[in-house]
């Protein structure tokens, strides 16, 4: 009598496959990548938990007292608790302002990267798959944009929008404007990278098979080609997140970014810069250090991811 068949083993989960992958093994071997990842997660956690861990809400007028204005850090003789790294000219706790500012900078950076990725990936898929005059037009537009620095494009978009609106814009509208400006500044890298990958993938057997069974071009692009070109896209997105945060900080420092009622790290640096030569260095130094640390951690993580996904370096 034949023995009963054993039940088939359940396929491993995506998490199990990732933990068993070469990418995760490479990550565990790189102390710099681990440190960058931990630092990035820490910065994001501090930003998300800002309302819970901050000594005060620095933008709630009911919690501010002018008697606490311009207090130095706690290790100075004139320092006062709970203002660990001092206060600004309005009595706002600098540490709390950094947490809240980092929250807004990350929000604008992430939304800007998502928008630029959506535009660039979409145009790259269309250019690479369609070819011909469609490809030529998209790539020539991309070539023209590459001749302008990203910050200049963001300034132009921001300036034109504010001129059309007459200079009177709500805070949420200004955030959306900065996101659009960043999105329109960084889409070219995605488009060029995805286009090159699509031109290679569209001649492979699985794409030809999809055409033979009558799949439409959008289905082939989104369900079959797109998953095979996401590796380089993740690398670009990680690096562009740091660039987007710097771009937002630059615009805010120049006074064309976010309003002071919704300050980011760039706005805090602009505000603190006015008091730098009066001896109140902590108002600008700590937001600047937070911005530098956040961007450095993300850049190091992006550099590791780029090298880990490069088969020539394996």
Describe this structure in a few short sentences.
With 314 residues, the protein is mainly alpha-helical. The chain contains 14 helices and no strands. The longest helix has 37 residues.
Summary tags:
mainly alpha, MetI-like fold, 14 helices, 0% strand, single chain, 314 residues, 67% helix
CATH architecture group name: Orthogonal Bundle
CATH class: Mainly Alpha
- Find the CATH superfamily: MetI-like
- Overall pLDDT metric: 85
Given helix and strand content, the structural type is mainly alpha
Kindly give the count of domains: 1
Broad shape: globular
Write the H/E string, N to C. HHHHHHHHHHHHHH
Largest sheet: none
Number of helices: 14
Assign a percent range to the helix content.
55-70%
In percent terms, what proportion of residues is strand? under 5%
Q: List segments where confidence is low: pLDDT < 50 over at least 5 consecutive residues.
A: none
* Radius of gyration computed on alpha carbons: 24 Å
Compute the number of strand runs.
0
- Tell me the span between the first and last alpha carbons: 52 Å
Structural write-up:
- By secondary structure, the chain is mainly alpha-helical.
- The protein has one domain: Orthogonal Bundle (MetI-like fold).
- It contains 14 helices and no strands.
- Helix 5 (94-130) crosses helix 13, helix 7 packs antiparallel against helix 8 and helix 13 runs antiparallel to helix 14 (282-308).
- It is globular.
- It starts with 13 loop residues before the first helix and ends in a 6-residue tail after the last helix.
């Amino acid at each position: 009598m034949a023995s009963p068949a054993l039940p088939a083993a359940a396929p491993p989960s995506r998490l199990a496959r990732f933990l068993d992958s070469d990418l995760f093994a490479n990550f565990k071997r790189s102390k710099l990548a681990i440190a960058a990842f931990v630092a990035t997660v820490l910065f994001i956690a501090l930003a998300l938990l800002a309302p819970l861990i901050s000594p005060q809400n620095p933008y709630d007028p009911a919690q501010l007292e002018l008697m606490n204005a311009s207090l130095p850090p706690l290790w100075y003789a004139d320092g006062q608790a709970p203002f660990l790294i001092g206060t600004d000219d309005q009595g706002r706790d600098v540490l709390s302002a950094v947490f809240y500012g980092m929250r807004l900078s990350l929000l604008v950076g992430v939304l800007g990267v998502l928008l630029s990725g959506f535009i660039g990936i979409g145009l790259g898929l269309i250019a690479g798959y369609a070819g011909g005059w469609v490809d030529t037009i998209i790539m020539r537009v991309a070539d023209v944009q590459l001749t302008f620095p990203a910050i200049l494009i963001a300034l132009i978009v921001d300036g034109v929008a504010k001129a059309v609106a007459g200079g009177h814009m709500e805070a949420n509208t200004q955030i959306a404007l900065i996101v659009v400006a960043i999105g329109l500044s960084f889409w070219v890298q995605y488009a060029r990278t995805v286009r090159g990958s699509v031109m290679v993938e569209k001649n492979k057997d699985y794409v030809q098979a999809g055409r033979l069974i009558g799949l439409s071009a959008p289905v082939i692009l989104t369900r079959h080609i797109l998953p095979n070109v996401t590796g380089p896209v993740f690398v670009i997105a990680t690096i562009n997140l740091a660039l987007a945060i710097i771009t937002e900080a630059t615009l805010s420092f120049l006074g064309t970014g976010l309003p002071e009622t919704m300050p980011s790290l760039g706005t805090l640096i602009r505000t603190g810069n006015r008091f730098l030569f009066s001896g109140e260095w902590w108002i600008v130094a700590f937001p600047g250090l937070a911005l530098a640390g956040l961007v450095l951690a993300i850049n190091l993580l992006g550099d590791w991811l780029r090298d880990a996904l490069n088969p020539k370096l394996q």
